TrEMBL record:
GO terms for molecular function: ATP binding; ATP hydrolysis activity. This is ABC transporter ATP-binding protein. Residues 5-236 form the ABC transporter domain. The keyword Disulfide bond does not apply.
Amino acid sequence: MRAVLTAQGLQKSFGAVRAATDISLTFDPDTVVSLIGANGAGKTTFLNMVTGYLRPDSGQILFGERDIVGLSPRQITKLGISRSFQIPQLFNSLSVRENLLLAESIAATDNPQAATDEALTRFELAPYAAQKAGLLPEGIRKLLDVSMALSSRSKLLLLDEPTSGVSADEKFAIMDVVMGAARIAGVTVIFVEHDMDIVARFAGRVVAFYDGGIIADGSPDTVLRAENVRRYVIGEEIPHAAA
């Protein structure tokens, strides 16, 4: 099975700060992977390198068999990598339907109107179709943002803190809708998340970042139980073993 995305030996520094140190990861088709770590651990730096917002100092990023290092974010999106940001990127003065229709038109969908109707149903946005995006509850704004990201018929969807700003009561419902839509679309999902309950429920694989590097990679049960992850990512007080 050919990997959707392969990162090999990625390095990135900002002056004396090393934001990425020898990051090597492979992502298979139809998988859901969560990236975890404290703020500044390197998760968003990795997403920014994959999507062309940052160029690695060294290393290779393959989307399928194509090296995408040096391509612009727009070029990378056209290849089939979409991204939803922590703060939704919406046209606040337009309605939900108008936002979706614009996204489908930009993506050159054969029938933008039909695709918009499908997205309204798939993301449970139909009741909000006529509302201005700027007046929506945060959870619905997140759903609209993800639905617009998927309008490009991507093979890989990157989600940067999809439950950030969403109430505790809404988080699981929002993620249920997002992951259901991703399964229907047949896309690989990589999502950054700080809520470990969300990670444990929705991720099939977890990659833990710390200080620009990877300290654990595996199943949620294995990674979330690892002592270094509990100490450096989750923030538990774990006594050091006696000498």
